[in-house]
Amino acid sequence: MKYEMVAGFETHIELATNTKIFCSCTTKFGGDPNTHCCPICIGLPGTLPKLNRQVVKYAIMAGLATNCEIANISKMDRKNYCYPDLPKAYQISQYDKPLCEHGYVQLSSGKKIRLTRIHIEEDAGKLIHKRGDTYIDYNRGGVPLIEIVSEPDISSVEEAKEYVERLQQIMRFIGISDCKMQEGSMRCDVNISVRPEGSTKLGTRTEIKNMNSITFIGKAMEYEFSRQVDLIESGGKVEQQTLRYDDVTNTTSSMRGKEDANDYRYFRDPDLVTISVTDEEIDELRKMIPELPFEKAQRYADELGLNEKDAQNLAKYRKIAEFFEESSEGIRNPKTAANFIIGQIFRRLETENDKEEFNIAISAQQLKELIKLIDDGKIKNNLAKTTLEKMLDTGKSAKEFISESDMAGMDENTLIELCKKAVESNPKAVADFKNGKQKAIKSLVGFVMKESRGKADAALAEAKIAEIIGG
Amino acid sequence: MAESLIKKYSDMLNNKEITCVELTEKFLNAIDTANKDLNAYVTVTPETALETAKAVDKKIADGQALSPLEGIPMTLKDNISTKGIETTCCSKILEGYKPIYNATVWETLSAQNAVLLGKTNMDEFAMGSSCETSCFGGAANPHNIDHVAGGSSGGVASAVGGNIAVYGLGSDTGGSIRQPASFCGIVGLKPTYGAVSRFGLIAYASSLDQIGPVTTTVEDSAIVFDAISAYDKMDSTSRGRVGAPVTDTLKNDIKGMKIGIPREYLEGVRDEVRVCIDKACEVYKSLGAEIVYFDLPALKYALPVYYILACAEASSNLGRYDGIRYGYRTSSYKDVNEMICKTRSEGFGGEVKRRILLGTYVLSAGYYDAYYKKAQNLRGSIVRAFDNSFTCCDVILAPTVPMTAFEKGSAISDPIETYLTDICTVPVNIAGLPGVSVPCGFGENGLPIGMQIIGNKFCEGTVLNAAWQYENAVGSEVFKASEYGVKL
After folding, report:
1. Which of A144, A187, A335, B284 sits in a 20 to 30 Å window from B8, CA-based?
2. Is B152 a known active-site residue?
3. B315 touches chain A (CB under 8 A)
4. pTM of the full predicted structure?
5. Longest dimension (CA), chain B
């Protein structure tokens, strides 16, 4: 029998607010243990939470960017459980009235992964185990999170990866989180079950907790899918349980079964008042949602004539997209800008993180000036390329590296003289060419380009050389 | 007419009849003597008190004017956070806990050079009606030390009633200010929910808790209320005082004022208490007020609603006492789970455990709808019923407690019977209303009896004015000084 995977995600994303959700401590990652704390976020007796309004705004933006309905009235609830990293013994979260509901994320195939809800809550601290002891760092405690819960609409590892990537891109684009999985600012729990292909009944699910890389999510899901299928095939039954994924052995193991499930005793937090959001506020936030990467890529392809792959690569990272748009604005052929970025600039940005950060020496305006010189016919592509490298090394403008004479262009007679010189100085290449080695002409053109310090028009030079040799 | 103690002492300071240090020392000495009998204070802070007193004396010497509470010796219930001063809620689990920040009310009062004599006794985590669930033992009634001071703010009431503090701040979740005030023959105000910041008040039941003044006179209650009622950005549920200072509204004529008496409040009340209420009605009639009797059937749900909601919130609020970060920690354990379990088993007393268990139960999956949710809905009905009442009367008059102060030991032996004595005080907390208890007579055993005046939300002015008019009319008839403490 063939089986299909049914999976849904619970994704926690740390919001990039300056201060924590219920106090004014910094949300900065790292720092010496327990230095980003105050009486409120370590839950000292008598302290009270005060909701950071920016958290509500960011969560609404997340909802708007994922096609959710936004609740005008919502509230905070207490989720009670006892664990040393949770200093109040309850997490302030949202239970039955989340801020956002009924959204979706669309995959490249056009398939929509429905979102059940997005709610806001506080993060817990961290346990550090060392030298046989356990230490607690509450720096992360009270950092604002949104939890995005999807419907079980995901039916393959590929869809799962794309879903997570898309969420990541969207949240980065709207600027509410850096979504760095390795730093824990984006973490995924996956609910996964299997069923015979074509069946519409859901199987018993297991939940794999706290995965912090897209690769591991893929591996864990593959492993868990086969484990469940094997279990069913061999006559067994999948048990509802919470699993932990071990990335060293690439296996999942049980954290707790259904019977040990916590009863969180949710109830409304009496320390916090009703959250009300007006339609005007929602409209204001809607205006702040930029064009999202998939729409951008579509536009780059449709309107600017970029190929699909280039369009996607440029649209994927917010800073790169902005750089591209600024440097190509008003340029005759936007592809030139695209080629420079994807060709030369990308070579300097090795990791995903580098691309996300996009720390390069020049501004979009500087690149635009360079492209303008090509557009205006003042310099040729070759010279532009070498100039761009120098610009990227130094941060200086194109004009610093290109002299007046470089831009003066070259009259036809000078070009013919240079071509003649090339033919005279390279008898071997000429002979090769004459013997049918078409490629040999390239070295002659190269000679001309070098002698002219890139000013010559390569195509024209090739034509002239062929004429000279032929004649 | 009852003389304002705060004004009296303030005038003495301003007129240089006594220095603040002398006044403070008198109180500290009185505490030394009286506290052996009363057990009102659990922590005495002579250094802090004298340091403040010296600063006040310097101001007086420099010819600077004093604010109303400046230099006045006072006390705080031991659940109000005081930076660097042990704040234990009279629970073993908070043994040795010294807060690193001040509650907003103490921040406000200490900025006015209030002279803090120490922290006063209370039922453990404010859970109790006799002060006897305190890990330090209960506070005694200053009129008869074989009887309790009441609870949970028993220590504050005992101290103020016993003249070893001019005034104090207590907290009232289901009657914890008004009931001990009634037992000790003094004035206790539970302000409107949100009138006084809860920031720094160690929570029992967050939606019901409110800090308020415990004083010997209504005017003092108004002075202290005016000082502590303000919007606080640290407390999302705070709103502060609405309208003019309450002290400005005292002495307003109450001719034509409608005083409502819900019949349900008089059910099961001891005859001697009923007699006092009837007499008070006569006093009010003589002042030109009109007495209206009416039914408030929603009141019959008040007690179960209170115990369900208060325990539910408490079970969550008290989850943080795990021995990890502060307070008591058990001495031996194998792992963290055992540590938490043993710490809580050893650190909490019986009443607190009972309420945590009750609260956990009513919030549990499968029971939530039957208990917690139903109680929330009924809370709504009670709120609406009171709203409705205030369309036909200006204030409500009711007994504070159906009886006089219990004998020591009797409350602990029968918890359910004791819960029932909260019947008259809890409705005010459920509805978030202001209520003040003022002395209105004595029982056969010579112990004080109190009555409550309840008003609509943020109508402390109306409530305290009605109380002041009564107090002014009856004078010393309902007031008896305790043999203890400072008399100047």
Report:
1. B284
2. yes
3. yes
4. 0.90
5. 71
